[in-house]
Amino acid sequence: MRLLITGGAGFIGSHIADKAIAKDWDVAVLDNLVSGRRENVPSAAEFFECDIRDSSAVEQAFAAFKPTAVSHQAAQASVAVSVREPQMDAEVNIIGSLNILSACVAHSVETLVFASTGGAIYGEVPAGIRAGVDFAPVPISPYACSKFSVEKYLECFCIEYGLKYTVLRYANVYGPRQDPHGEAGVVAIFCNRILAGESILINAKRDVGDAGCIRDYVFIEDVARANIAALEGLIPDPILNVGTGQETTTQQLAEILQRETGKTVEMKPHDRRAGDIERSLLDGDRLIELRGPLVSINDGLQQTAQWFQQRLNVSS
Ligand SMILES: NC(=O)c1ccc[n+]([C@@H]2O[C@H](COP(=O)([O-])OP(=O)(O)OC[C@H]3O[C@@H](n4cnc5c(N)ncnc54)[C@H](O)[C@@H]3O)[C@@H](O)[C@H]2O)c1
Q1: Active-site residue (options: 122, 143, 170, 174)
Q2: Which of 33, 81, 126, 233 gets the highest tally of CB atoms within 10 A of its CB?
Q3: Closest-lying ligand 1 atom to the alpha carbon of residue 74
Q4: Using a 6 Å CB cutoff, which residues line ligand 1?
Q5: Do 152 and 93 fall into the same domain?
Q6: Which residues make Cβ contacts (< 8 Å) with residue 294, sequence separation at least 6?
Q7: DSSP assignment of 140-167, as one string?
Q8: Which residue has the CA at smallest separation from atom 21 of ligand 1?
Q9: One domain for residues 166 and 118
Q10: Is 290 inside a domain boundary?
Q11: What's the pLDDT tens digit per position in 80-99?
């Protein structure tokens, strides 16, 4: 396997790169380092510093590396940024993705795995329901629209050019290497602040003082494993949810993390954040059926908190 990972210097892509190298695959990472970090790229991987919006640079990277498989993780990955800058979101997430899809066709890539979003595509998931892949998408942010468009382009490219693909719709992914300084990634933000003894905000689901939004938190190890399985052809479905089906409120998350770190900090009730979905929960049964049990939220958060603690120890 010759695997090209777009966005491989980022949180999720770099874990996929580690797993692929452990399998002795030839790996290349294509990334413009806008949010990714060069040190996340394993030394055994080739690196192309390249913007997916630049079709000729993408073409050159494909011609040089000659991938047989592509893991397309590069994206403008923030809902909030997409609301502020919808054109930029579309340029990266739609036009950039089309450059990758076209290069896959031109270079006869055998399989493409696309990082989509279950957290944003399904919109509000009513109480008592878990969104399966047959749940009608309600993309209410520019980010969700751009991800859903690429899913549709993949259908077209499959029919028109025979491009084989798997769409993985991730829930809220967390784990080591997630950026604690962005607007997204509440687990990373909380880990950083709790370990520093700083207060944390519980943004309201609806009213200030409630337990906060409900999310499906999935550990990076399970996400990376699902990606590798898809690349190996072990996921027969064109679209698969990568989530746990377990709901967790922001407050519960904060409590587990304080328990795991042994630190107690002030939890400040805060207003609802504009644009936040109140409840997002995926049906992850098919993933479990195909790939076995997932890491529990307690174990995943424990490993994540340990990683952030070690990082803090190294830097102090
Ligand atoms: N983290 C989550 O909870 C989550 C949930 C659903 C979907 N996703 C999707 O998973 C993928 C990976 O997300 P992540 O959390 O690892 O984010 P990340 O920001 O850590 O990684 C994205 C990577 O893409 C690179 N990139 C961005 N724009 C680029 C461009 N124009 N050209 C080349 N490289 C570019 C960044 O430098 C970064 O390394 C994204 O497609 C994201 O939309 C993530």
Answers
A1: 143
A2: 81
A3: 24
A4: 7, 9-13, 31-36, 51-53, 73-77, 92, 96, 115, 117, 119, 170, 172-173, 179
A5: yes
A6: 218, 219, 222, 244, 284, 287, 288
A7: -SHHHHHHHHHHHHHHHHHHHH---EEE
A8: 10
A9: yes
A10: no
A11: 899 999 999 999 999 999 99
Whose structure tokens read 């990683």? 307
Ligand 1 atom, smallest distance to 14 CA: 16
pLDDT digit string, tens, across residues 255-312: 999 999 999 999 999 999 877 899 999 999 999 999 999 999 999 999 999 999 998 8
Q: Side by side, which strands form the sheet with 239-242?
A: 46-49, 26-31, 2-6, 69-72, 111-117, 165-170, 239-242
Return the CA Rg of the chain.
Answer: 19
Count structural domains, the chain: 2
User: What residue numbers bound the domain in which 224 lies?
Assistant: 2-171+219-242
Residue 144 and residue 82 share a domain: yes
Average pLDDT taken over every residue of the chain: 96
Residues 186, 53 share a domain: no
Quick check: is 187 in a domain? yes
Q: What CATH number is given to the structural domain containing 210?
A: 3.90.25.10
Average pLDDT over residues 18-42: 97
Residue 153 annotated in active site: no
Shared domain check, 205 and 164: no
Percent of the chain with pLDDT over 70: 99
Residue among 11, 18, 87, 216 to mutate when testing ligand 1 (max atoms within 8 A of CB): 11
pTM: 0.97
